Amino acid sequence: MVVKEELKKLGLHFIFVDLGEVEIMETLSAETLNSLKKGLLTSGLELMDDKKSVLIEKIKNAITEMVHYSEELPKVNYSDFLSQKLNYDYTYLSNIFSEMKGITIQQFIIINKIERVKELLLYEELNLTEISYKMHYSSVAHLSNQFKKITGLSPSHYMQLKDKRRKPLEEIGNTEKIQQP
Questions:
Q1: Is residue 179 part of a domain?
Q2: d(CA 145, CA 110)
Q3: Do 58 and 74 share a structural domain?
């Protein structure tokens, strides 16, 4: 909606406005482009007119959507999933992503998967075996190794820390006597 409003303010007509993409009918002058950039920045949005940056955002959004927002991870390889979703050869996507972000797509996927595992651990609805199955890990050990590599903690240690930080509601406001030596 914010993007549509900015386009209307500048008298621009759009064909479609979608997450991360806009197609407009007019050719933009440098002055109009600058006005659009400034208008979007005031709303906390950034205009990306560099095709590589746009593609990187599409890759990141596809991975985020796949890992965090879909009930089931795709049954195909992640490389096939991204190639099909974005209509580019995976090698091309991988090279651009590594060049621009300094990490591989695979590393970015692993980081996202571990963030999702942390979230699932905090919900306490699934045990580690169920989480490893849901997140397509070959075993609990594989999940645990990746978790420790990324966070520096084992999943069980992560849960213990979470439990120590949280105070049960019934204990909030209770003061403990501090013993004097």
A1: no
A2: 12
A3: yes
Task: Indicate if 40 and 56 belong to the same structural domain.
Answer: no
| Cβ within 8 Å of residue 114, ≥6 positions away | 146, 147, 150, 151
Three-class SS of residue 46?
Answer: coil
Asked if residue 7 lies in contact with residue 22, where contact means CB atoms within 8 angstroms, the answer is yes
pTM over 0.85? The answer is no
In a domain, 116, yes or no: yes
Domain hosting residue 152, numbered range: 52-165
- Give tens-digit pLDDT for 104-154: 999 999 999 999 999 999 888 899 999 999 998 999 999 999 999 999 999
Decide if 14 contacts 24 (C-beta within 8 A): yes
> Is residue 87 one of the residues assigned to a domain?
yes
